[in-house]
Specification:
Helix content is about 35%, strand content about 25%. The chain contains twelve helices and 14 strands. The strands form two sheets. An eight-stranded mixed sheet has the order 8-9-10-7-11-12-13-14. The chain has a six-stranded parallel sheet with strand order 3-2-1-4-5-6, sandwiched between helices. A hairpin with a 6-residue loop joins strand 12 and strand 13.
Length: about 325
């Protein structure tokens, strides 16, 4: 039985714990928040046996085996390294770190200590992603892919009033790319691997944070475009365009539908195929990442590279996108 603690009391932690009722092999041992009032209330709500207001005290607790980190991106590496040094397994919310170098540091240290470290990003663990991958052969030669993940942030109105909350502070390693575009980059890398070349541009807000961003990635015989935004809504529709058919995916963070429309010019008749997606809906789908994390712990970390190599590749692409758009984080400085 894995004794789990969580750091952070926001909605994403609540999603994970709600999804946790579908998982086996863990119990919630503790929660951590800088606010004692929040920590105590969160522990009572979710049935945790104890609460902490200091990560050092949490790390020193011998009754905790693993920790889920759901704090701002700029803290991920520092918190993970502290917890790994204390012998805890770490599940860290996306983005896994501020950059590739930080996440590589986390992976190397976890392996040295015989521990598991894993990025919690729902699309990478969604079983429907494998169905989508297996369906790519039906499209013929793939020529273009467009991955879209953007939404008008609930905190943007405050930003326009001059109230700058954490989600709109670039020094916290946030922005459209890190908060939402990470899903689009991950599904692209998962399906097609590392691109040969990246060309990116962004619309940056007054404080330098990327509000809208587009990146075109070159693959052999194919182009893939990533679009993300925090200041405008999008349809959430992604496409993979092949010479024999077009695959449309609704919501690339948690696919809600996927339909292939075959090339009518080739077949002479209109034909479509709805893929039988079976994964849990948004929120509940976090059970997949949690169960993989628990299974990796049980397996002594065997199989961890499969997931961490994807995270490292995705962060490498995101690092290049940020470099081209002039977006430098404090964490980028060695």
């Amino acid at each position: 039985m894995v004794r789990l603690a969580t750091i952070g009391t926001n909605f994403i932690t609540e999603y994970l714990l709600s999804a946790g009722k579908f998982c086996q092999g863990f119990r919630l041992e503790a929660v951590c928040s800088r606010s004692e009032q929040k920590a105590k209330a969160f522990a009572q709500k979710w049935g945790a046996r104890r609460y902490f207001t200091n990560i050092d005290d949490l790390a020193a607790c011998p009754d905790i085996d693993a920790v889920y980190i759901a704090t701002p991106n700029f803290t991920h590496c520092a918190y993970a390294m502290k917890l790994l040094a204390a012998g805890k397994h770490v599940l860290v919310e996306k983005s896994g770190a501020a950059n590739e170098r930080e996440f590589q540091q986390m992976v190397d240290f976890a392996k040295k200590r015989g521990l598991v470290v894993l990025e919690a990003i729902r699309i990478a663990f969604n079983p429907d992603l494998e169905l989508i991958r297996q369906s790519l052969g039906k499209l013929g030669k793939i020529r273009r892919a467009i991955f879209t993940c953007g939404a008008y942030s609930s905190r943007y109105d405050n930003f326009k009033r001059g109230i700058i909350e954490n989600a709109f502070r670039p020094e916290m390693c946030n922005g459209a790319l890190m908060d939402l575009g990470v899903y689009a980059v991950n599904i692209m890398v998962d399906l097609f691997g590392a691109p040969q070349k990246v060309n990116a541009d962004a619309i940056r807000l007054e404080n330098g944070l990327d509000g809208v961003l587009t990146a075109t990635c070159t693959y052999p015989g194919m182009l893939a475009t990533v679009f993300t935004s925090k200041v405008a809504d999008s349809s959430g529709l992604s496409e993979i365009q092949g010479e024999e058919g077009l695959l449309r995916i609704e919501n690339c963070s948690t696919p809600s539908s996927a339909t292939i429309t075959y090339n009518t010019r080739r077949s002479g008749q209109e034909k479509s195929e709805v893929l039988p997606l079976l994964a849990a809906p948004f929120g509940e789908d976090m059970k997949y990442e949690l169960q993989v994390f628990l299974d990796l712990i049980a397996a002594g970390g065997e199989g961890m590279d499969r997931y961490n190599n994807r995270t490292l590749c995705s962060l490498r692409v995101m690092d290049e996108i940020r470099a081209q758009c002039g977006m430098v984080f404090p964490n980028d400085k060695v």
